[in-house]
From TrEMBL, chain A:
Keywords: FAD, Flavoprotein, Oxidoreductase
Domain of life: Bacteria
GO molecular function terms attached to this record: FAD binding; oxidoreductase activity
Organism from which the protein derives: Klenkia brasiliensis
UniProt-listed InterPro entries: CO_DH_flav_C (IPR005107), CO_DH_flav_C_dom_sf (IPR036683), Diverse_Substr_Oxidored (IPR051312), FAD-bd_PCMH (IPR016166), FAD-bd_PCMH-like_sf (IPR036318), FAD-bd_PCMH_sub1 (IPR016167), FAD-bd_PCMH_sub2 (IPR016169), Mopterin_DH_FAD-bd (IPR002346)
FAD-binding PCMH-type domain: residues covered: 1-177
Record's protein name: 6-hydroxypseudooxynicotine dehydrogenase subunit alpha
PROSITE patterns recorded: FAD_PCMH (PS51387)
Pfam families the record matches: CO_deh_flav_C, FAD_binding_5
TrEMBL record, chain B:
InterPro entries per the UniProt record, alphabetical: 2Fe-2S-bd, 2Fe-2S-bd_dom_sf, 2Fe-2S_ferredoxin-like_sf, 2Fe-2S_ferredoxin-type, Beta-grasp_dom_sf, Diverse_Oxidoreductases
Pfam families: Fer2, Fer2_2
Lineage of the species this protein comes from: Bacteria, Bacillati, Actinomycetota, Actinomycetes, Geodermatophilales
GO molecular function, one term: oxidoreductase activity
Keywords: 2Fe-2S, Iron, Iron-sulfur, Metal-binding, Oxidoreductase
CDD domains associated with the record: fer2
Entry annotated with the keyword Iron-sulfur: yes
Name used for this protein in its record: Carbon-monoxide dehydrogenase small subunit
Amino acid sequence: MKPPAFEYEAPSTVEDAARLLADGGDDAKLLAGGQSLIPLLNLRFAAPSLLIDLNGVLELAHINEAAGELRIGALVRHSAVAGHALVAERHPLLAEALGYVAHPQIRNRGTIGGTTAHSDPAAEVPVVLLMSDARVIAHSTRGQREIAVDDLFVSIFTTSLEPDEIITEVIIPDRHVEPGTITGSSFQEFARRHGDYAIGGGAAIVELDAEGICRNARVGLLGAGMRPEESKAAAAVLENSTLAEDTVREAARVATAEINPLGNVHGDVQYRREVIREMTFRAVMTAANKAKAGTA
Amino acid sequence: MTQISVRVDGASYADDVEPRTLLVHYLREQLGKVGTVVGCDTSNCGACTVHLDGESVKSCTVLAVQADGSEVTTIEGIAEGGELHPMQRAFHEKHGLQCGYCTPGMIMASIDLLKNNPNPSEAEIREGIEGNLCRCTGYVNIVRAVQQAAGEMSSTAGAQA
Ligand SMILES: Cc1cc2nc3c(=O)[nH]c(=O)nc-3n(C[C@H](O)[C@H](O)[C@H](O)COP(=O)(O)OP(=O)(O)OC[C@H]3O[C@@H](n4cnc5c(N)ncnc54)[C@H](O)[C@@H]3O)c2cc1C
Ligand code: FES
Ligand code: FES
C-alpha cells in the first residue's frame, strides 16, 4: 500500500461534508481532484486520519452566471472550466492559463476549488483569479462567508481558510469595461517541458481606447514569491500610455524589481526574476496586440 | 474495508477494498489486470492511464473507492473479439514502442485525445500525450502511430456515418 491508512467518507451534500470536517478535527482533509493530495499521500508527506471526498457532492459541480458574475462550483474540473463557453467569452485569460496547467489526464481530475485551496504560487489559476478580483465562498457548520482571493492567499500552501471551512464556489465578476475600449489578455510562462510547473510567468489584461491609449491594465506574476502576485506599479506604468515597447519593458522591470522567487535546482532567484520579467513583457505585448486586432 | 461495485472492461465486480487502495493497485492486484502498469505513482509519468467514465485519468492518483459505481476501461478492454483496437495496431505497425512499459498508458491517452480531437496536428498530438513519458522511443514513432490511427479511425467513422 502506498498511502498511509485513513478513514474515508463520501458525503453527497455540502452540509454533510462540513459536519464531517468540523467533527474530524485537525487531521481531517478534503479530497477534490486528488492531483496534489494523492501524490502527497503516496509519498507519505501527508497522513490525514480522515479523508472527506467531495467528488460525490454534485451541488459543487455547476458553472452559471448571475448578476454579472460567473459562479464556478469548487468541484468543476480544470478541463471543464477551460472548455466552457462562458469562460471563453468572459474570461479568456482563465481558459488560456488552464492550457498551461499540467497534462490532459490531470486536467480531467483537478478542480478549481482544489487549486485555489492549495495556494501554490507556481499555480496559474490563482494568478488569474487575483487579476480578476475573484472571491470564494467558504462554508462551514458555522455558516458561510465570502473571501476576496487577495485575502485568501496568505503564503505558499497556506490560505486564510479556517480548518473547518470548505470552498464551495469561486466567483468571478464580469470585467467592468469602459465603453469604446477593446480588451486583450495573455498568459505567458516558461517551463522546461510544457505542462510542468513553470520556472516563471507573467499575465496581462489591457484595455485600449479608440486612440490606442491604455485605459486599464492588470499585471499578474507567476512563481514570483510566496503567493500569487499582482503588480499595481506595473499597471500604473502602462495606464495612459500607448503600450510602446519601451514602456512595456519598463513596466516589466518595475513588476519584477522587488520580487523574491523561490530558487531551486531549476533556476536560482536571479534567473527566475529575469524569466518572470521577460514573460511579463511578452504577456503585455501579446495582450496589446490582441486588443489592437480585436481578438480579446 | 469499503464495498465497491465497478464495471471494468465490460465486466461487473463487487469487492471489499481498503480506502487507501489506489485504483491501479485494485486493477492489478485484486482483478489481475496487470496490463495497466505503475511507473511513478505520483501522477507524473502516465503509465497507469485508464479511462474512468470515458475520460483519461492516472489510476495511481484515483482511489479504488472513488471508482465505485463507475465504468473503467483499461488497455485490456479495448480490443474487440480478438481484433486489436486501431490504436494498438498502429503502435505495432509504426513501431511506437521499444520496451513497451509506457505503451498501455500511451494508447489510453491517445484514444482519449482522438475522442476530443479526431484530426490532431503533430503539435496537438505531442501536447495531447504530454502527460505520458517514454524513456525509449524518443516519441517520433509514437506520434506516427497516433497519426495512422487518427486517419484510420476517422475514415471508418466516416464510412459508418
Ligand atoms: C504532474 C503534475 C503536474 C502539475 N502541474 C501543474 C501546473 O503546471 N500548474 C498547476 O496549477 N497545477 C499543477 N498541478 C496540480 C493540479 O492542478 C491539481 O489538480 C491542483 O493543484 C489541486 O486540485 P485538486 O482538485 O486535484 O485538489 P486535491 O489534490 O484534491 O486537494 C489539494 C488541497 O486542497 C484542499 N481542497 C481541495 N478542495 C477543497 C475545497 N473545495 N475547499 C477547501 N479545501 C480544498 C485539499 O484538502 C488539499 O489540501 C500538477 C499536478 C501534477 C500531479
Ligand atoms: S504511475 Fe501513475 S502517472 Fe506514473
Ligand atoms: S517504449 Fe520503453 S518507455 Fe516507452
